[in-house]
Design a protein that fits this description.
Number of domains: 2
Shape: elongated
Strand order of the largest sheet: 3-4-5-6
Distance between the termini: 79 Å
Subcellular location: Membrane
Largest sheet: 4 strands, mixed
Order of helices and strands: HHHEHHHHHHHHHHHEHHHHHHEEHEHE
Structural class: alpha/beta
Protein name: SulP family inorganic anion transporter
Pfam families: Sulfate_transp (PF00916)
Keywords: Membrane, Transmembrane, Transmembrane helix
Number of strands: 6
Membrane topology: Multi-pass membrane protein
Length: about 500
């Protein structure tokens, strides 16, 4: 009887052994990141674990991207911190709940695939700006000082924060522990393969915890409130007090960033394996369902996380079971060992996020874009700088606007060919797309034509002629014909 049961189980779950092994690896990668993102977001550490559990179990069970893993992400840390500071922790659940419902609606309307139409330069610029602000904010955590509110002030105040830390033994100890954590993460790829079976973030935080405990370094550790005590369901009363344009803008920013990051991550994960491809609308609905549950629990927003997803694929995962099991392991840890969080040094978690923030800045991609597509490189840089100087939502809108303008400019390519044989009429041929963006160039070229000779303007080569250009051409023809020469003859387009 036992062999028959084992055979049936093998048929139903043919990759169970590989998925269990992969889920343990993803759990070990996710644990320090969940806690670190929560602490950096200004919320209880347990809420990061709650989001990780929901991302594993709820989103993991749904169809979409089979091997992608979701949870709290460094890419939303800055926005969550600003939202909690502006609206308060009780309203966070409402924001995340509204984000989830909006994602569900977008998925139901089959708009998930359209997120792939967002310029990659805008998304990478968005992540680069987030990375810069995240790094700056976490350096303040490394020194044990309070970070300014805006991204620009964070960057501008770094020299003074580091100078103050140099005069404080406690700040120096905290900074050294965080720097050591970053050093371990950077060097982890160089250690022997057997040692690398332990995930880098877990090893770095574990070593930092051991050093802090043995040496008695005076560094801050994570505050523990208990899982049930940290959960704060959304407060509709708090929503009524703070509802406004700012709240709506934050929900839109949450939705845009979480959805775009998740779907771009799904495309990247698809390139890592040969299994089923992502169904983008279903994946967007899975993210929406996860964020809806996170909102009801008052937890952090979730998104697909490329670090965990890559770890899942590289660990040999074959089905959705691996990401669901990783959520189960997180739940068991949060339920049975929450007091273990109190031993984690805050500088070590800040070091992990400094490293994660640095990986969000696509230095190599910027260099490659500058060589081949300078317009895209400019959009990336402007988006990142705008996020740092103005704000998250405004920076993304600036990047999207630049992307649209660039596309419109490129689409309005036009060519003017002038044939002048020295005698007789001058013939001018316009071809391409004549839009108002190219109107100054068109008029400059036409007004340079001889005024004492008849002109034949052929528009048959135009694919598009907008109203502004048509009106300008008619006005130019009237002015040119008014100089005593033969009237301009226009050959209309198709």
């Amino acid at each position: 009887m036992q062999p028959l049961i084992d055979l049936t189980r093998a048929r139903r779950f043919p990759y169970l052994r590989q998925d269990i092994a992969a889920s343990l690896v993803v759990f070990l990668v996710a644990l320090p990141l969940c806690v670190g993102v929560a602490v950096a977001s200004g919320v209880p550490a347990e809420l990061g674990l709650v989001t990780g559990v929901v991302g594993g179990i709820v989103t993991g069970l749904m169809r979409g991207s089979s091997l992608q893993v979701s949870g709290p992400a460094a890419g939303l840390t800055v926005l969550v911190f600003e939202a909690v500071r502006e609206f308060g922790l009780p309203v966070l659940g409402v924001l995340v709940l509204a984000t989830g419902v909006l994602q569900l609606l977008l998925g139901a309307l089959k708009l998930g695939r359209w997120f792939r139409a967002i310029s990659v330069s805008v998304v990478e610029g968005m992540l680069a700006g987030i990375g810069l602000v995240l790094i700056a904010g976490q350096i303040y955590s490394l020194t044990g000082s309070r970070a300014p509110a805006s991204g620009l002030r964070k960057l501008a105040g770094l020299p003074w924060a580091l100078a103050d830390a140099a005069t404080s033994p406690r700040a120096l100890a905290s900074l050294a522990l965080g720097a050591g954590t970053v050093a371990v993460l950077m060097a982890w790829r160089c250690v022997p393969r057997r040692v690398r079976s332990v995930p880098g973030p877990l090893a770095a935080v574990g070593l930092a915890t051991l050093v802090a405990a043995v040496s008695g370094l005076p560094v801050a550790t994570v505050e523990v409130r208990g899982l049930l005590g940290a959960i704060q369901p959304p407060s509709l009363g708090a929503l009524g007090e703070s509802a406004g344009v700012g709240l709506f803008g934050t929900v839109v920013a949450f939705t845009l960033i979480a959805s775009a990051e998740s779907l771009f991550s799904a495309a990247a994960v698809d390139r890592m394996h040969d299994g089923p491809r992502t169904e983008y609308d279903r994946e967007l609905m899975a993210q929406g369902a996860g964020n809806t549950v996170c909102g009801l629990l008052g937890a952090l927003p979730m998104t697909a996380v490329i670090v965990r997803s890559a770890a899942n694929v590289h660990a040999g995962a074959r089905t959705r079971a691996s990401r669901v099991l990783h959520g189960v392991w997180l739940l068991l840890f949060a339920a049975l060992l929450p007091s273990a969080l109190a031993y984690l040094p805050v500088p070590a978690l800040a070091g992990v996020l400094v490293y994660s923030g640095a990986k969000l800045i696509p230095v190599r991609e910027i260099a490659a874009l500058w060589r081949e597509y300078r317009g895209e490189a400019l959009i990336l840089v402007v988006t990142a700088v705008s996020i740092v100087t103005v704000g998250m939502f405004e920076g993304v809108l600036i990047g999207l606007a630049l992307s649209v303008v660039k596309t419109a400019w490129q689409a309005s390519h036009i060519k003017l060919e002038v044939v002048d044989k020295g005698a007789g009429p001058v013939r001018a041929y316009l071809s391409g797309n004549a839009t108002f963006l190219r109107l100054p160039k068109i008029l400059d070229s036409l007004e340079a034509l001889p005024r004492d000779r008849p002109v034949r303007l052929d528009l048959s080569g135009l694919h598009h002629l907008d109203h502004a250009v048509r009106r300008a051409l008619v006005d130019w023809a009237q002015r040119h014909s008014g100089d005593g020469t033969e009237p301009v003859r226009l050959t209309p387009g198709r």
